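Re: that chain you flagged

S.,

Sorry for the slow reply, it's been a week of failed gels. I finally had a moment to sit down with the sequence you sent. For the record, here it is as I used it:
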Amino acid sequence: MTNYVTSTDGTSIAYDRQGSGPNVIMVGGGLDDGRENEPLAAWLATDFTVYNYARRGRGKSGNTQPYAVERELEDLEALLAEAGGTAHLFGASSGGGLVFSAAMAGLPIDRLAVYDVPYCMDDETYRRAQEYVAKVGPAVAEGRLDDALELFLWLAGSAPEEISGMKAGPYWSAMREVAHTLAAEAACLGDFRPPKELAGITQPALVIDSGQSAGAQGMSGLPKDFFASAADAIANLIPHADRRTLHDQGHVGAPDAVGPLLKAFFR
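Prediction finished late last night. Pasting the structure tokens below so you have them in one place:
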């Protein structure tokens, strides 16, 4: 990412811009430095001007402390200003929680779309989320990033043997590089249930779930309807919500599956 905007607190936020047409800003989720959305951003750039950025503390973006969700909203405000004052927003996973916060705060968003927002609708995963929040903050503050990563994977439903396999695998070090953002990421989801204030969102919203990703490898501890039940609850709160399911996708959807829904909706 070679372009930068400066947020209100002086933090430098790195982003890529490609394509032409109406503006779309891509908001990544947990452990993502912006690269996860790159294939989808390129797919959308045939019809839109797409801004894909590294959230603060990730990639080439700065990490001014102390953290607050409000600072991330200021980052989005800087990107919206760079885009000419308004844009559509797409939020993947917990990035959807940040998109909702932006809409509830009144940022100049045209339309918003989210994919697999991990709100915990059943009591057991909600209890796990509260335990996670209590433990991940101290782990990050004390520099125990491997512990923080293990906690995150446990929350995501990974079995102990899956976590052990990931620790021995090639991607652990890359995840560890952004593990210091996990406590901040949790803050973007509030209490891990859809806030009632979603009912005040006036923009059209596209709410997508991946259908079959929960319960699959790496998420075997989650209820199979985990993402679907969260998407249902979100869509029931937002007045102008379009609810869709992609049954054959994982938690990171393929561009040629997610992209057509976004293109049709953002048009």
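What I noticed first: The radius of gyration is 17 Å.

Talk soon,
D.
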